Amino acid sequence: MEVCLPVDADAAGTRVDVFLARAFPERSRSFLARAIEKGAVRVDGLTARAAVKLKTGSVVRFVVPEPPRAGPEAEEIPLEFLHLDEWLAAVNKPAGMVVHPAKGNWKGTLAGALKWHLERSDGGLSQAGGPARPGIVHRLDRDTSGVIVVARTEEVHHALARQFERRTVEKTYLAITQGQPQFDRDEINLPIGIHPYQREKMAVRRDHATSREAVTRFEVVERFRGAALVRVTPKTGRTHQIRVHLATIGCPVLCDGLYSGRTVIEPGFFGLPPGHPLAGGPLLTRQALHAARLVLDHPASGTRTEFTATLPADMERTLAALRTGRL
Question: Active site residue: 10, 44, 122, 141, which one?
Fold first, then answer.
């Protein structure tokens, strides 16, 4: 639902976020802030940031997001716990699993599985992120596998969130790229904002209202003909950051439907004959991106703690096919 709100003289000079808070008193400030961050607010046709000050006669258009549901139902879904104590948990999220409920994805989420495994035991899950995100401090894209950390108390949730905000959490990903980076190691420092035409995508955009600083460092682990295994360490945490940055340098993540144009990688893509041991079906049906390592300060002990998740079978099979040298 889109709402059109004219700005009168009494509202002139008011910030966009304050203006919306007055217009929608039933909505929380955090709800409105997330909507603004996602580009749901336009002033005189231009996407607006929260701090933009309004002028008399301007028109604010607000695409009002659906309010979050009460919360996910507990679902008996197997999870691989990499670490579990009374303060936090680390999970190896499988590809294809949405982290928390959203439109079109109310079932089968990590949040629902966490409720089943942890809310029935002592300690439960933090509710600091709201009822739809029990324990969720950060997220991974649906088709990105790997390490995700979960808070079990509100105090731990806030402590972990501060570490992510201050960028003291070390995140390491492994990606198989379509195409080879020019350099063995490099840093990509390009701002990311909402794509100008496709709202489900992000894009490198300079001087745009939705743009935010984004920094990604990478090094090539292994090169193949027309592809590479790359270790990626993002220094910021923008939506689709790694996927956008690698695509921008001409090396999109393999099988990334949004940024590479491919949604399935068959063995024939690597030149494997039908009788080859690795030719028994698609090698990849999702982007070849895996959160392999996460390092943070444990909120209870202060000890620097590392969580790692081994490369999943589909990426291992893809690398085995690449190593045949027939790409």
Answer: 141
CA distance 87 to 288: 31
Contacts of 260 (CB under 8 A, 6+ apart): 178, 247, 252, 253, 254, 287
Active site residue 297: no
How confident is the model over 71-92, as pLDDT tens digits? Answer: 788 899 999 999 999 999 999 9
Tally of structural domains, the chain: 3
Q: Which CATH number characterizes residue 24's domain?
A: 3.10.290.10
DSSP 7-43: --GGGTT-BHHHHHHHH-TTS-HHHHHHHHHTT-EEE
Helices 16-23 + 29-37 axis angle, to 10: 130
pLDDT in tens, 132-176: 889 999 999 999 999 999 999 999 999 999 999 999 999 999 999
